[in-house]
Design a protein that fits this description.
Helices cover 28% and strands 26% of the residues. The chain has 323 residues and is an alpha/beta fold. The chain folds into two domains: 141 residues, Quinone Oxidoreductase, Chain A, domain 1 (Alpha-Beta Complex); 139 residues, NAD(P)-binding Rossmann-like Domain (Rossmann fold, 3-Layer(aba) Sandwich). The strands form three sheets. Strands 3, 5, 6, 7, 8, 15 and 16 form a seven-stranded mixed β-sheet that branches. A six-stranded parallel β-sheet has the order 11-10-9-12-13-14, with helices on both faces. It has a three-stranded antiparallel β-sheet with strand order 2-1-4, with no helix packed on it. Helix 6 links the parallel strand 12 and strand 13. Helix 2 crosses helix 3. The protein is globular and about 60 Å long. The structure holds NADP nicotinamide-adenine-dinucleotide phosphate (NAP). NADP nicotinamide-adenine-dinucleotide phosphate binds next to helix 1, helix 2, helix 3 and helix 8.
Length: 323
């Protein structure tokens, strides 16, 4: 079968298409014929060497895939064969025509949802639902959604009102992304590529932001504290697009009675996994999450696209056999 092998850490060129043996499911696993494989932002960082890989290269790259179950390992009910699922691997192996994954990491795809949409929505949407459940919005609150035009942010904008937000302020980079965040439902969008965007936000919503969904992190997190509601403002920190997690100290939070919740780690991930069925059921009512579909052998191009920050949705890889 064709697979994308990560030959080392580095630029997108380390992702190389190769012919490799088709895997067989071990006990507790399923094998799917992949129809849609999402290129995830954290994968680009792993490929670049920002974090260690669980299995060192050379290794078949990739974390998630959607497709049809074609074989099950020992201990797994045979009636799963033929069902469409999205799977998460144990850290490698999804950029391939056939993908093995633990059966417990599979989520059934509803009939009315395409494999592409399911693959594009599952990670971002399940994280957004878990963030919104954690925020416990009251119905009259203002939220800030950072990097809101795509991924997790795009689902936060679309779902925030249902979960109790009255006003949604978004940040996005450049005119096209700003327009997209508005179209998704943001009331106000601030360009986070402008130096001083945190000052602009604090000026336009002084002391009135109840919840910040922080995906940029770094020094901008502390700079947003003056915009937050004293006594009840909560920052939910889940990403570090700037290259560093939120740099906020207890000494900065305490005077304003603000809180910061770390939304990462194994227990968090377990909660997010529990939201996967919910987000797939919601996909038909939400904006299409797919920007581009590329052949699997153009995985390196997919990574270049994600790193360019141009796409307004997910980049999906499609194996030739299902094209
Ligand atoms: N804690 C968790 O469980 C969890 C789960 C999933 C993702 N994450 C993290 O959440 C963040 C967002 O992930 P995602 O999947 O939503 O991303 P995504 O859709 O792939 O896109 C990220 C967006 O962030 C913006 N961006 C990229 N580099 C940036 C930078 N240096 N500074 C500011 N903005 C930047 C880009 O928007 P503009 O072009 O508009 O700037 C891009 O559209 C990432 O840090 C990711 O690792 C965390």
């Amino acid at each position: 079968m064709q697979a994308i092998v990560m030959t080392g850490t580095g630029g997108p060129e380390v992702l190389v298409a190769r012919e490799v043996p088709r895997p067989r499911p071990a006990a507790g696993e399923i094998l799917i014929r992949a129809a849609a494989i999402p290129v995830l932002y954290p994968e680009t960082q792993l490929r670049a060497g920002a974090f260690p890989m669980a299995t060192p290269p050379p290794v078949i790259f990739g974390f998630q895939a959607a497709g049809e179950v074609v074989e099950v390992g020992a201990g797994i009910a045979a009636d799963l064969v033929g069902r469409r699922v999205v799977v998460s691997t144990d850290g490698s192996g999804s950029y391939a025509e056939f993908v093995c994954a633990p059966a417990q990491n599979a989520t059934l795809i509803p009939d009315e949802v395409s494999a592409e949409d399911a693959a594009a929505a599952i990670m971002s949407g399940s994280i957004a639902l878990t963030l919104l459940n954690t925020a416990k919005l009251t119905g009259s609150e203002t939220v800030v959604v950072e990097a809101a035009a795509t991924g997790v942010g795009s689902y936060l904008i679309q779902l925030a009102r249902e979960f109790g937000a009255a006003r949604v302020i978004a940040t996005a980079g450049g005119p096209a992304k700003i327009e997209h965040a508005r179209a998704l439902g943001a009331d106000l969008v601030i360009d986070h590529r402008n130096e001083g965007w945190t000052d602009e936000l604090a000026e336009r919503a002084p002391g009135t932001v109840d919840v910040v969904f922080d995906s940029i992190g770094g020094t901008s997190a502390a700079a947003l504290l003056p915009a937050m509601t004293p006594g009840s403002g909560r920052m939910l920190s889940y990403g570090w697009l700037s290259g560093a997690p939120a740099q906020v100290s207890a000494a900065e939070l305490i005077p304003g009675g603000l809180t910061l919740t770390a939304c990462a780690g194994p227990a968090w991930q377990q909660r997010a996994d529990g939201a996967r069925t919910d987000i797939l059921a919601r996909v038909p009512a939400l904006a299409s999450p797919v920007e581009t579909t590329l052949p699997l052998d153009q995985a390196a191009r997919g990574h270049e696209l994600v790193e360019s920050r141009r796409p307004l949705g997910k980049v999906i890889l499609r194996p030739a056999a299902t094209a």
